[in-house]
Design brief:
Number of strands: 0
Number of helices: 5
Radius of gyration: 15 Å
CATH superfamily of one domain: ACP-like
CATH class of one domain: Mainly Alpha
Helix content: 40-55%
């Protein structure tokens, strides 16, 4: 995990700066509220988990609900995740061959991540 000195104020600009820094993304890479974390930025698996942890640390919030899951703050359905597992499963072929259901991943944009972080921060501040 990277130790990044940033303001603790949660703004979309600070969130984008944190994403750039933690993921090593160039300033030339366009990142806005509609940018998808997985599809556009390639953030998945452990990188996604580490990004969420870094957001929690830098902006003093917690994404975890009362049950410890991310379900409430990200409006996830049962058995739905924010990121795919790491590793290559070309078009779900290996999952299919092994009789596994494909991962149910909710595509999340930078704007949706910001909204979830804002919701989590308000929840923490309001008790």
């Amino acid at each position: 995990m990277l130790a990044i000195q940033m303001t603790k104020e949660l703004t979309i600009e600070n969130l984008v700066a944190l994403i750039r820094t933690t993921q090593g993304l160039s300033k030339k890479k366009v990142i806005n509220e509609t940018t998808l974390l997985e599809n556009d930025l390639g953030i998945t698996g452990d990188d996604g988990r580490e990004l969420l942890e870094e957001i929690e640390n830098q902006f003093n919030l917690s994404f975890a609900g009362k049950d410890g899951s991310l379900k409430d703050v990200f409006d996830l359905e049962n058995d739905q995740y924010l990121f795919h597992s790491e590793g290559v499963d070309l078009f779900g072929i290996f999952s299919f061959l092994l009789g596994k259901k494909p991962e149910n991943v909710k595509p999340i944009s930078v704007g949706e991540l910001f909204n979830a972080a804002s919701k989590a921060k308000r929840k923490l501040e309001n008790g």
